[in-house]
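Progress report, Aim 2. The chain analyzed during this reporting quarter is listed below.
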Amino acid sequence: MKILQGKTAIITGASRGIGRGIAKVFAEQGANVAFTYSSSVQAAEELEKEDISCEIIDLRTIRPMDHETILKSVKKTNRLVILEEAWPFGNIATEITYQVQSRAFDFLDAPIVKINTADTPAPYSPVLLKEWIPNSNDVIKAVKKVLYK
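Predicted structure tokens for the chain:
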């Protein structure tokens, strides 16, 4: 059993590989990009009601990282929002930002927006933890920011 942000999934059967360095893309018709899966899906559903379509990429592995899928998406959408449940300094989002800016800068129509946890120690209280972890409202604000809405 695996628990992620209060959502439970039962994993059955033999261990299956996910494909090292192969990202999974959801909703390939999009106006912007969001990474990871949990809060992004909820935000994409809310944004769809406002006629904003999002492309969501679940990297699944970070070493090796599927840079080509990320770059292909940025070249198509011209925007990038990165969601990572980690502190804002020295994380994977920073590496993705560097790679996109160095390899696809001319395709960006807006600055890259990173969504991370607060730059504070992780809280123990469930109430504080809920506020500390990025959520779908954070994603919605970031998407609207890169779309200048």
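The first strand starts at residue 2 and ends at 4. The first helix runs from residue 38 to 48. These observations will guide the mutagenesis work planned for the next reporting period.
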